[in-house]
Amino acid sequence: MFRRPVVQVLHFVRHESEIAGSLVLERSLNHVQLLGRVGQDPVMRQVEGKNPVTIFSVATNEMWRSGENETHQMGDVSQKTTWHRISVFRPGLRDVAYQYVKKGSRIYVEGKVDYGEYMDKNNVRRQATTIIADNIIFLSDQTKEKA
After folding, report:
1. Which of 44, 73, 42, 78 is nearest to 57 (CA)?
2. Which helix (H) or strand (E) holds 8?
3. DSSP string covering 92-140, please?
4. Is 75 left (phi over 0), alpha (psi -120 to 50) or beta?
5. Beta carbons of 75 and 69 less than 8 angstroms apart
6. pLDDT digit string, tens, across residues 1-44
7. pLDDT tens string 134-144
8. How confident is the model at residue 47 (pLDDT cuts 50, 70, 90)?
9. In angstroms, rounded to a whole number, what is the distance separating the alpha carbons of residues 30 and 34?
């Protein structure tokens, strides 16, 4: 996996003076890393005039102990599962994800968060949060785990 040097990602702030005031150009960071299990086999969708996209979901789990003895490994264990919608637009990665991502597989996904709106079947405006995948690493093969 190729990585950009940190200097490129976290670039210094650049100031430019203008007649109407000062313009500040700066870099920002929108980066997500997920490690979890695939919740559904991927589907490929294509809207007219747009590139196809592969979509699937990934579940991540957060676990913690509650009670008085948190430091002594006693108490009730609680778990919260969060579902993430993953969209893959990059042509090579999109096709690999569609072919090899399978329900139950453990994967690592890198990408960025995207917030959008759409109209549902009843013409109601809905909001959607999606992870746009830039990289996927396959960590397990479901058929090997069942053996």
Report:
1. 42
2. helix 6-9
3. HHHHHHHHH--TT-EEEEEEEEEEEEEE-TTS-EEEEEEEEEEEEEE--
4. left
5. yes
6. 444 444 444 444 444 444 555 677 888 999 999 999 999 999 99
7. 999 999 765 45
8. confident
9. 13
